[in-house]
Automatic annotation (TrEMBL), chain A:
It comes from the Bacteria. Its EC number is 6.3.5.3. InterPro entries: PRibForGlyAmidine_synth_PurL, PurL_linker, PurM-like_C_dom, PurM-like_C_sf, PurM-like_N, PurM-like_N_sf. One of its GO terms (biological process) is 'de novo' IMP biosynthetic process. Mg(2+) 2 binds at residues 136, 288. Pathway: Purine metabolism; IMP biosynthesis via de novo pathway; 5-amino-1-(5-phospho-D-ribosyl)imidazole from N(2)-formyl-N(1)-(5-phospho-D-ribosyl)glycinamide: step 1/2. This is Phosphoribosylformylglycinamidine synthase subunit PurL. The gene is purL. It is found in: Cytoplasm. Keywords: ATP-binding, Cytoplasm, Ligase, Magnesium, Metal-binding, Nucleotide-binding, Purine biosynthesis. Residues 93-207, 463-580 form the PurM-like N-terminal domain. Part of the phosphoribosylformylglycinamidine synthase complex involved in the purines biosynthetic pathway. Catalyzes the ATP-dependent conversion of formylglycinamide ribonucleotide (FGAR) and glutamine to yield formylglycinamidine ribonucleotide (FGAM) and glutamate. The FGAM synthase complex is composed of three subunits. PurQ produces an ammonia molecule by converting glutamine to glutamate. PurL transfers the ammonia molecule to FGAR to form FGAM in an ATP-dependent manner.
Automatic annotation (TrEMBL), chain B:
Part of the FGAM synthase complex composed of 1 PurL, 1 PurQ and 2 PurS subunits. PROSITE patterns: GATASE_TYPE_1 (PS51273). The keyword Electron transport does not apply. Its EC number is 6.3.5.3, 3.5.1.2. It comes from the Bacteria. One of its GO terms (cellular component) is cytoplasm. Pfam families: GATase_5 (PF13507). Keywords: ATP-binding, Cytoplasm, Glutamine amidotransferase, Hydrolase, Ligase, Nucleotide-binding, Purine biosynthesis. Pathway: Purine metabolism; IMP biosynthesis via de novo pathway; 5-amino-1-(5-phospho-D-ribosyl)imidazole from N(2)-formyl-N(1)-(5-phospho-D-ribosyl)glycinamide: step 1/2. It comes from Actinoallomurus iriomotensis. This is Phosphoribosylformylglycinamidine synthase subunit PurQ. The active site is at residues 87, 196, 198. It is found in: Cytoplasm. It catalyses: L-glutamine + H2O = L-glutamate + NH4(+); N(2)-formyl-N(1)-(5-phospho-beta-D-ribosyl)glycinamide + L-glutamine + ATP + H2O = 2-formamido-N(1)-(5-O-phospho-beta-D-ribosyl)acetamidine + L-glutamate + ADP + phosphate + H(+).
UniProtKB/TrEMBL annotation, chains C, D:
The lineage of its organism: Bacteria, Bacillati, Actinomycetota, Actinomycetes, Streptosporangiales. One of its GO terms (biological process) is 'de novo' IMP biosynthetic process. GO terms for cellular component: cytoplasm. Signal peptide: none annotated. Pathway: Purine metabolism; IMP biosynthesis via de novo pathway; 5-amino-1-(5-phospho-D-ribosyl)imidazole from N(2)-formyl-N(1)-(5-phospho-D-ribosyl)glycinamide: step 1/2. It comes from Actinoallomurus iriomotensis. Keywords: ATP-binding, Cytoplasm, Ligase, Nucleotide-binding, Purine biosynthesis. SUPFAM superfamilies: PurS-like. One of its GO terms (molecular function) is ATP binding. This is Phosphoribosylformylglycinamidine synthase subunit PurS. Gene3D superfamilies: Phosphoribosylformylglycinamidine synthase subunit PurS. The gene is purS. It is found in: Cytoplasm. Part of the FGAM synthase complex composed of 1 PurL, 1 PurQ and 2 PurS subunits. It holds the Pfam family PurS. Part of the phosphoribosylformylglycinamidine synthase complex involved in the purines biosynthetic pathway. Catalyzes the ATP-dependent conversion of formylglycinamide ribonucleotide (FGAR) and glutamine to yield formylglycinamidine ribonucleotide (FGAM) and glutamate. The FGAM synthase complex is composed of three subunits. PurQ produces an ammonia molecule by converting glutamine to glutamate. PurL transfers the ammonia molecule to FGAR to form FGAM in an ATP-dependent manner.
Length: 756, 225, 80, 80
């Protein structure tokens, strides 16, 4: 038998036996992103060189994406500093965390990035980003009930931004709409730093009964391993073909494309099929196939279970019969899941799959050998201890160092920028900000998403948080995502806290009690010590803030290498906060609906303009320090907002964030179609545009003002009467009065005129 | 006797459970119907819900039309059973030739989701008798293939015989000819509607509860029949 | 193995919003002098057996009943 | 007046979910023996001027930049 010969039509197989006999065969591990030390480690683990299939498994499982090798030492802080929470049913480490929301219901939620693919092929990149996070939620045993999308693009007028935005938004909508998941919120942010590094972070939330939680584990020797869902094709396996072509069959294996293509219809079938499978309690373990596909599912299931698994790769249904085993192992084909099923339940499992037109195939068996063994065409090509691939990947303590330019950046305070002072200048600034892409109305994007499907959407964009009713009510959940790359660039520790602060505040503004956190950490290259410092500081900041606010991190995702050449993006932690509503009928909206309501401002305003939208929009200035996080004030504000909502005191509430008071007021006016008149005692510029934290504006019936004031006093939240709702203009006494029609035109016109 | 209203689930149907909720809120009994079934379970009326049956691949509604249950439904519809197709259901009814015309890509080429004002133009159909003619209601639309078109003769015939059931007011979200949001067959028992009344049955979760009338209408008809 | 191509186009009197969008985009990209764009669908169908009359008839039936909607579309069919 | 046809198909290795949905539907409609369906797009482009080399080149450029997405699709072009 020739080793890599071409004497027969059948290409050679790199078997375990062969690997033991031919230690010196050169394998293209470097092309697969593995360094010498990592490769040597694989050899030590196996006591021989890996087969090409084994190398495929280790290289993907030990990639940054799957192993978190650069971030793991830092992420531990989320666990170390986790506040105690009775609500936490499943913490970090599973596909997604699960929290108890009361009344016999649990909720699982997670946010994940699909940044790089969304730049290469925006539609498919974003679509498969949504598809991937939905399968994570599904694999916890939950019914997915909503999605959110947090998006960042390059400069709005840059030539490529239109392509990326158009494709990404169509992709998020195309997939989520077709899947029947309401989109209940997100972000759209523009900044030149994201030009060639758009950020597409997708969040999914699902609902389940605590007793229905599923885990990614393969216990019980003799249990069957079933691969179900779409066929396996050459999606996302650029790397694998290096292996196949370099080692074997040079001519017939061109480098394969690395684009993954989504099929939302298949995912919908998969979802309904899983719901019936869960209802009949047919699985002992289940795992979605995401990055690293079959490699990841088999190693992780086996490692978390009895420890062994035999898999016959010939049984994997292929969309392309020419795929080699390495490619099957690394394929990132979408809409696939793997289940572990007791033999007696296999027939019923397959029957339900058939009912939903979901292909399903038994491909393996759980064993107690402690080894993951795979055969292909009758030969053993993989024989490894699965835990070494799944859990024992390399861990790096990458060097980090405060970026050299940070001192200068922080010293470059916005205080010296000329401020508007006359009524005309203030008015112009209000208009200018309202029509700037980051602050303008996002309906151009959000109207492409179905927010009504499933019939449980209580609040969605443009309210501060999405709110979903659970079961038949009255309980429900609220979710918001926030992140600010400019703040985080100026101070990563504070920036991460500010992101959490804002999401926490958004959730509380609707009247929900914040409960738990998910996060997506978007950064540059971990090999850049400056970036690594930003990362470490951000994680530290977030962990400390979660502890202070009493909300644990339940899961998340890290995306590194978001940079162009040596220029990283602004570090952008995107934080999702989940809150609970005991009664969703008490939810509070942002819109000013009733004439004559009193407007109160809660919280303290300081002159804080570092990283502000004002400095950004008017001067393209980024410097100084971001607003000071004040977690105690944030918690106090939330307690007032939640308490007031529970008592039904609030007719409207809107938190203050990007763009400050001016922006919050005009959004509430435009949403409800009613104007307002306010009086500003202090420096009107600071009052209108500062981005100090822990503030919200509320509209209350004059008779209830005293009660709200009492709640504020009890919680030590400063409160001040601002003015009154009514009329058809946004009026600041003694300064300006802008007709809502005029405001509406700039606010709503901005994105359509750029991208319509 | 409570009316039994069937809701068909095709692979890819999305608003089936919402339609069932709306039926329940109208004090009728929703009966889930599976696309591959061969009988209508003795229901009094049928709703074809919104969604993306078969992913809307090929054309919206094109594949669902061939479901085994659709043959039964076509017979029943011709026999006078009330049938309401919402969004994707409307598309299926057109593809099945139970209603004339076709629904094509929105003029904007975008998916559009908005709270939409409609005018009920025909309050005599089995699904609109709870409304007044000319009454305006706000109901969500959400679709990408919602642009109703028909040849000029068909259009003329629909208009002159009062078979335009609902029309968009203020904004035409998809470019439909004559702002048409919904139509019916000659007998008025089969109605196709692009907007989603089942998402306007509770003010907590919809822009209004003004969509409930469609479901109440069919229940009233059952009672009066 | 028989291979057929079915081309489905909107009837000329039906508004082709996708084609028009392409036509509008072209000048923005610097392509002048385009007087019309129409967008349709193209299917490649593979059948077992020979590409004979009977096979052609079968594909024609598929096109009529499924691939094209006769209310708004026309199709052309050819063996490859 | 020059008339061109541009046919855009997904690359063979890219999942063609639409074609697959049609392929799966056909047997249920009584069409057996279909071994593959692929769905793509077809554009008819009309240009001012003669259908010469230069016109072909312009249409080729349009196809590359707008009509087809080179990451996942290939196209063919012919004068009619
Ligand atoms: N990509 C998006 N997808 C869904 N909703 C979005 C998206 N971008 C913004 N939104 C929604 O638009 C509204 C305004 O966004 P933003 O001003 O960023 O909110 P906030 O400042 O309260 O965080 C919010 O309801 C937000 O959820
Ligand atoms: Mg907010």
């Amino acid at each position: 038998m020739t080793i890599y010969g071409t004497e027969s039509a059948r290409p050679a197989v790199d078997t375990v036996a062969r690997a033991a006999e031919t230690p010196d065969v050169a394998l293209p591990y470097a092309e697969l992103g593995m360094n010498d030390e990592e490769f040597a480690r694989v050899q030590r683990i196996l006591g021989r060189r890996p087969t090409s299939a084994e190398l495929a498994i280790y290289s993907v499982m030990w990639s940054e994406h799957c192993s978190y090798k650069s971030s793991r030492v830092h992420l531990r802080k989320f666990g170390d500093k986790a506040p105690h929470s009775d609500a936490l049913l499943v913490g970090m480490g599973e596909n997604a965390g699960v929290v108890d929301v009361g009344n016999g219901w649990a909720v699982t939620f997670k946010i994940e990035s699909h940044n790089h693919p969304s730049y290469v092929e925006p539609y498919q990149g974003a679509a498969t980003g949504v598809g991937g996070i939905v399968r994570d939620i599904l694999s916890m045993g939950a019914r997915p009930v909503a999605v959110m999308d947090s998006l960042r693009f390059g400069a709005p007028d840059a030539s490529d931004t239109r392509r990326v935005l158009d494709g990404v938004v169509r992709g998020v909508g195309g997939y989520g709409n077709c899947l029947g998941l309401p989109n209940i919120g997100g972000e759209v942010v523009f900044d030149p730093c994201y030009g060639a590094n758009p950020l597409v972070n997708a969040l999914c939330v699902g609902v389940l009964k605590p007793e229905g939680i599923k885990r990614a584990t393969a216990p019980g020797p003799g249990n069957q391993v079933i691969l179900f869902g779409a066929g396996t094709g050459p999606d996302g396996i650029g790397g694998a073909s290096v292996l196949a072509s370099a080692t074997f069959d040079e001519a017939s294996h061109q480098k394969r494309p690395s684009v993954q293509v989504g099929d939302p219809f298949m995912e919908k079938l998969l979802t309904e099929c899983c719901m019936e499978i869960f209802a009949e309690d047919l699985v002992v373990g289940i795992q979605d196939l995401g990055a690293a596909g079959v490699s990841c599912a088999t190693t992780e299931l086996a490692a978390a279970g009895t420890g062994g698994m035999d898999v016959n790769l010939d049984l994997v249904p292929l969309r392309d019969p020419t795929l080699r085993p390495e490619e099957i192992l690394m394929s990132e084909s979408q809409e696939r899941m793997m289940a572990v099923v007791e033999p007696a339940k296999v027939a019923r499992f397959l029957e339900l799959c058939k009912r939903w037109d979901v292909p399903a195939t038994v491909i393996g068996t759980v064993t107690d050998t402690g080894r993951l063994r795979m055969t292909w065409r009758g030969e053993t090509i993989v024989d490894i201890p699965p835990g070494t691939a799944a859990d024992e990947g390399p861990v790096y303590e990458r060097p980090y160092e405060r970026p050299a330019d940070l001192d200068a950046l922080q010293a470059d305070s916005p205080d010296k920028l000329p401020r508007p002072s006359t009524p005309e200048q203030l008015r112009d600034t209000v208009m200018w900000l309202a029509g700037s892409p980051n602050l303008a109305d996002k309906s151009f994007v959000t109207s492409q998403y179905d927010k009504y499907v499933q019939g449980n959407t209580v609040l969605a964009m443009p309210d501060d948080a999405g709110v979903i009713r659970i079961g038949d009510g009255p309980q429900g959940i609220a979710l918001a995502t926030d992140g600010n790359g400019r703040y985080t660039r100026l101070d990563p520790y504070a920036g991460a806290q500010l992101a959490l602060s804002e999401a926490y505040r958004n959730v509380a503004t609707t009247g929900a009690r914040p409960l738990a956190v998910t996060n997506c950490l978007n950064f540059g290259s971990p090999e850049d010590p400056g970036v690594m410092w930003q990362f470490a500081r951000a994680v530290e900041g977030l962990a400390d803030a979660c502890q202070a606010l009493g909300v644990p991190v339940t899961g998340g995702n890290v995306s590194f290498y978001n940079q162009t050449g040596t220029t990283p993006i602004n570090p952008t932690p995107v934080i999702g906060v989940l809150g609970v509503h005991d009664d969703v009928t008490r939810r509070v909206q942002i819109s000013f609906n009733v004439e004559g309501m009193s407007l109160l401002l809660l919280g303290e305003t300081r002159p804080e303009f570092g990283g502000s939208e004002w400095a950004n929009v008017v001067f393209r200035h980024l410097g100084g320090l971001p607003p000071r996080p004040d977690l105690a004030a944030e918690a106090a504000l939330a307690s007032v907002l939640v308490g007031a909502a529970r008592e039904g005191l609030l007719d409207a509430a809107h938190d203050l964030s990007d763009g400050g008071l001016s922006q919050a007021l005009l959004e509430s006016c435009l949403r409800g179609g009613l104007g307002c008149t306010v009086t500003l005692p202090g420096d009107p510029f600071v009052e209108l545009f500062s981005e100090s934290v822990a503030r919200a504006v509320v509209a209350v019936h004059p008779e209830r003002e005293a009660r709200v004031a009492a709640l504020c006093e009890a919680a030590r939240v400063p409160v001040r009467r601002l003015g009154v709702v009514g009329g058809d203009s946004f009026t600041v006494e003694g300064q300006f009065s802008i007709p809502l029609t005029e405001l509406r035109e700039v606010y709503q016109g901005a994105l359509p005129s750029l991208f319509g | 006797m409570t009316a039994r209203v069937g809701v068909i689930t095709f692979p890819g149907s999305l608003d089936d459970r919402d339609a069932a909720r709306a039926v329940r809120l109208a004090d009728a009994e929703p009966v889930p119907l599976w696309h591959a079934a061969t009988d209508l379970s003795e229901v009094d009326a049928v709703i074809l819900p919104g969604g993306f049956s078969y992913g809307d691949y090929l054309r919206a509604g094109a594949i669902a039309r061939f479901a085994p249950l659709m043959e039964r439904l076509a017979d029943a519809a011709r026999g006078g059973m009330p049938v309401l197709g919402i969004c994707n259901g409307f598309q299926v009814l057109c593809e099945s030739h139970l209603l004339p015309g076709a629904l094509t890509r929105n003029a904007s080429l975008h998916f559009v989701c908005r709270a939409q004002r409609l005018r009920i133009e025909n309050a005599k159909t089995d699904w609109t008798r709870a409304y007044e003619e000319g009454q305006e209601v706000v109901i969500p639309v959400k679709n990408i293939d919602g642009c109703f078109i028909a040849d000029p003769e068909t259009l003329e015939e629909l208009e002159s015989s009062g078979r335009v059931v609902a029309r968009y007011v203020d904004v035409n979200p998809n470019g439909s000819l004559n702002d048409i949001a919904g139509i019916c067959n000659e007998a008025g028992n089969v109605v196709g509607l692009m907007p989603h009344p089942e998402h306007a049955v509770e003010s907590l979760t919809g822009p209004s509860s003004e969509g409930l009338g469609f479901f109440v209408s069919v229940v009233q008809r059952m009672v009066s029949a | 193995m028989a291979r057929f191509v079915v081309e489905v186009m909107l009837k000329p009197e039906i508004l082709d919003s996708q084609g028009q969008a392409v036509a509008r985009a072209l000048p923005r990209l610097g392509f002048e002098g385009v007087t019309g764009v129409r967008q349709g669908k193209r299917f490649e169908i593979e059948l077992e057996g020979p590409a004979d009359e009977a096979a052609t008839e079968r594909v024609r039936k598929m096109a009529e009943t499924l691939l094209a909607n006769p209310v708004i579309e026309t199709f052309e069919l050819r063996a490859e």
